[in-house]
Amino acid sequence: MNNRFFVDSDKLSEKALKKKHKLETDPSVRTNHMEYMPGMEQINSDVCEKVISQMKSFDYSVYTEKDVKKALEHDTCSIDDFKALLSPAAEPFLEEMAQKASVETSKHFGNTVYMFTPLYIANYCENYCVYCGFNCYNDIHRMKLNMEQIEKEMKIIAKSGMEEILLLTGESRSMSDVHYIGEACKLARKYFRMVGLEIYPVNTDEYRYLHECGADYVTVFQETYDSDKYETLHLMGHKRVWPYRFDAQERALRGGMRGVAFSALLGLSDFRKDALASALHVYYLQRKYPYAEMSLSCPRLRPIINNDKINPLDVGEKQLCQVLCAYRIFLPFVGITVSSRESADFRNGIVKIAATKVSAGVSTGIGDHESKYSGKEQDEAAGDEQFEINDNRSLNKMYNDIEDEGLQPVLNDYLYV
Amino acid sequence: MIINDDKLNIGGHEFNSRFILGSGKYSLKLIEAAVKDAGAEIITLAVRRANTKESENILDFIPKGITLLPNTSGARNADEAVRIARLARELGCGNFVKIEVMRDAKYLLPDNAETVKATEILANEGFVVMPYMYPDLNTARDLVNAGAATIMPLASPIGSNKGLATKEFIQILIDEIDLPIIVDAGIGRPSQACEAMEMGAAAIMANTALATAGNLPLMASAFRKAIEAGRQAYLSGLGRVLTRGASASDPLTGFLRD
């Protein structure tokens, strides 16, 4: 089943290869993914139990056309209605779902579409996550930008007009520590109105520190909420610890972050169950932290360097659209981000239905904005990309395309208070 | 005719129009329609959105003669609201401020207690304070004492277009509070705006109802007419006579002799 993911680099030593193969084939050598590693903070929270019990009992095959019709008629979407909308029985009602989702989106967000761009500042990683281009066994060019290089990238991005930035790193505490990320946040605040982070999960006090450095929004993808499946995909490293990752958003909010974003990586496991769990993760945390801003993403698996066989399996565009419509109807107030993993056509269509935020001018590589934005040849080496993007529109192009769709692109809706 | 002298007075400033554009949904076409077709003289501006690049700066799109009403959306407590209001003044938005304090990201319901605190601080600093609130008489009285220029009760949750869900409580504010009561949030149709004006509301603030209309200028014009009609009905005494038991043409007690 996982063979589509396993790729051996000829640059790995015999010893490394042996360890890699052992991890891939012998579960007994892998650490307990439910056990916290030293230094990982454990918080007392009931959110995980609530989400997972709902997910485990979710049998989407029992929902019928009648349940879907009822769900579409209700003013308020209950958890059970949401389950019906995620079920295969809802697939023939995709247009009706899109119509309802579109009404909800416009009630809560009008015709606005927010824009942002990611900036990868390092791609070192200590984990072996089999589907990820940054995984420690993948033979890619590694790089960590220094502050001068980060500032250069930021200047190029800011010049394009972008006002919101999402800083990303590979998941390596040793190569890109919290202090390094904090310094990058301070620089980002000089050039951008809003700074978000998508880094490895950290403890509450570290989130507080990063918040003080200027980050105000934290994105953590759970990848899959099925912890048994998770164990077979994240074979080594701190990322292997599933519950520590689950509580990341709650720690971020306790650390003072204004908002948090959630997602499963669709295509890794049963996407209907993962979609249910992602939305319920938002739902239960929102009840506990009602002042927090929350958003959902919906990435699907993409090919990576050295492995073009990776794909989102049974999650086609129709299924993705169904999930997004169900998210919007169940959680009309949350932001929904659709990244450049999806095609321009899909993104142009989905912003009219459910999505409220899109990335533009995207590079998932390290230190290559100058060449990507200006076409100028790179003076220095760049770090390789995390995954292949599908929509490479610049900010200007994206901005104009959104306007052409009759929508209002918004570069900033944020104020540090 | 009496209507000609019928001005809306907010903190000593007079306005002819009783339609105020809310800030929720951001579109320059919306601003144009609100001013031209709905006759708006006051336009709300979310400071969090004004803080953007020059070519996008909403301040540049506000026609001359229009009063800007910056709001404190994004504030989760009184302190944050006060900071945003001061920032708005620094940005050149004038002295008006609409206080919005929300500790709830789902329904965006206002926090009345924090709103009273922010109102007091900002009124003392010379702002014309227009607080958005959940319609509660005690809070409204506190806001009056804190120096508010108007009271802005919500009709129903922001963006819901559900109309006057809090009708009875807004009526109490209209009856008991001596400041203009401006109905804010949840007005989805011109008929709802008209109803609120018939009740005696001083003005209507709306945004989503226009922003999500099929034909923006036409809906803006419909709101203008509905608000004017409601106001005229109120001034004519009709609304109160029929629904609130004032003098009938053939009194039931006419038979009494001494």
CATH topology type of chain A: TIM Barrel
Number of helices of chain B: 10
Mean pLDDT of chain A: 90
How large is the share of residues in beta strands of chain B? Answer: 5-15%
Give the CATH superfamily of chain B.
Aldolase class I
Helix run count of chain A: 16
User: Any idea what the shape of chain A is?
Assistant: globular
CATH-derived architecture of chain A: Alpha-Beta Barrel
Number of domains of chain B: 1
Computed Rg of chain A = 21 Å
Number of extended strands of chain A: 11
Keywords:
heterodimer, A: 417 residues, TIM Barrel, eight-stranded parallel β-barrel, 16 helices, 11 strands, B: 258 residues, five-stranded parallel sheet, 39% helix
Kindly describe this structure.
The complex is a heterodimer of chains A (417) and B (258). Chain A is α/β, with parallel strands linked by helices and 417 residues long. Helices cover 40% and strands 13% of the residues of chain A. Chain A is globular and about 60 Å long. The mean pLDDT of chain A is 90. Chain B has 258 residues and is of the alpha/beta class. Chain B has one domain (13-236): Aldolase class I (TIM Barrel, Alpha-Beta Barrel). Chain B contains ten helices and ten strands. Chain B is globular. The termini of chain B are far apart. Chains A and B meet through helix 5 of A and helix 2 and helix 3 of B.
In short:
The complex is a heterodimer of chains A (about 425) and B (about 260). By secondary structure, chain A is an alpha/beta fold.
Helices and strands, with pairings:
The complex is a heterodimer of chains A (417) and B (258).
Chain A: H1 14-25, H2 47-56, H3 65-73, H4 79-86, H5 94-109, E1 112-122, E2 128-129, H6 147-159, E3 164-169, H7 178-191, E4 194-198, H8 204-212, E5 217-223, H9 227-233, E6 234-236, H10 242-246, H11 248-254, E7 259-264, H12 271-288, E8 293-297, H13 317-330, E9 335-338, H14 344-350, E10 357-359, H15 369-374, H16 395-404, E11 408-410
Parallel strand pairs in A: 1-3, 1-10, 1-11, 3-4, 4-5, 5-7, 7-8, 8-9, 9-10
Antiparallel strand pairs in A: 2-6
Helix pairs in contact in A: 2-12, 3-4, 4-12, 4-13, 5-13, 6-7, 7-8
Chain B: E1 8-10, E2 13-15, E3 19-21, H1 28-36, E4 42-46, H2 47-50, E5 67-71, H3 78-90, E6 96-99, H4 112-124, E7 128-133, H5 137-146, E8 152-153, H6 167-176, E9 182-184, H7 190-199, E10 203-206, H8 208-211, H9 216-235, H10 238-244
Parallel strand pairs in B: 3-4, 3-10, 4-5, 6-7, 7-8, 9-10
Antiparallel strand pairs in B: 1-2
